[in-house]
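Case study 2.
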Amino acid sequence: MPNEAGAQPTILIIGTYDTKAEELAYLAERIGAAGGAALTMDVSVLGDPPGPVTVTKHEVAAAGGGSIEEAAGFGDENLAMQLMARGAALLTRRLFDEGRIGGMIALGGTMGTDLALDCARALPLGAPKYIVSTVSFSPLIPAERLAPDVQMILWAGGLYGLNPVCRASLSQAAGAVVGAARAAERPESARPLVGMTSLGSSCLKYMKALKPALEARGYDLAVFHATGMGGMAFESLAAEGAFVCVMDFALPELGNLLAGSAVNSGEGRLTAAGLAGVPQIVAPGCLDLIDFAGWQEIPARYADRPFHAHNRLIKSAALNAEERRESAAAMGERLAKAKGPVAVILPAGGVEEWDRPGGATHDGPAHEAFCAALRGAIRPPATLTEIAGHINDAEFVEAALAIFDRWRAEGVVPG
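Prediction:
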């Protein structure tokens, strides 16, 4: 973080100062009262702020590749704010990289939130990013627009003008972003870091054995919960080169994406590490399931499938043979684009705990169809290692460590 832990943090405040100057000024005042300093960015188009700002709307528009006159001339608020969003996101990251800010907070309705989401995604994981919005965590916001660690708070009663209700939201948000920026530590370690995907240990168990084994070899392990946002965080850090190797063993987000489930990480799943040249050990954990929100009715097309209700938040239905073939093809296609080494482990005995014989989602013929499809889908630079056992068996852990140790000996994975 640009701010040392415990030091006075500088927070970037983003908003339309032509229409929300009073609210934004109150936010800055509360940031100051909480022990922070404010740097302001105006992203308005038509009007002018009543007072000076640190980053003007003209600078924002220029950074976005245009001008305020051009934005106003569109005659379309959507196009205008997309121009401003490009510039605001670029400048937000630049200010962070220059060490001028330790975090950001943005304020808005749907228009301001649209822009704020881009600014939040421009900052790296671990940089405090807060959005005070009239549509916080609304179904209007697709999952792929959310930065993995963005924090949102409902701007209750704040659509127009200050009042006691919206002051409560703004003051909470001010305290939260200052506190986060003051306390934040860089996600750094003297030990090389391995990134892993998994699910809860009732479904996938390999992390319990692999964590101590990797730590004994001198590595730290970060395990990401593959339920949408976790996959986004994993892909984001992989793209930044945070990992010396990834063990991407839980791929339900890919299957969900292909099947149209909202429990996904966007189109970039299973691509970032490969495009960054990071060594990948990959397995199709849970690529046999489609996940649904617990409150959601299972669509009729899945009504006759093997089914497992994990808890009140998430439940899963098994993919059929054809859908699993499609998942295998997508897996092979994405891994073929990798610029670094890729080793795929295929557990012929099963890919998640509930698919064992007698389990709730067991479908032997469909799994066999998947295995056959994956054998044909893997192509260079990826290689395929097949084991007879299940992904939760010791045999799988041994296979993964054998590849990892070989790569360490060859210098593919730095020690």
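The first helix runs from residue 21 to 33.
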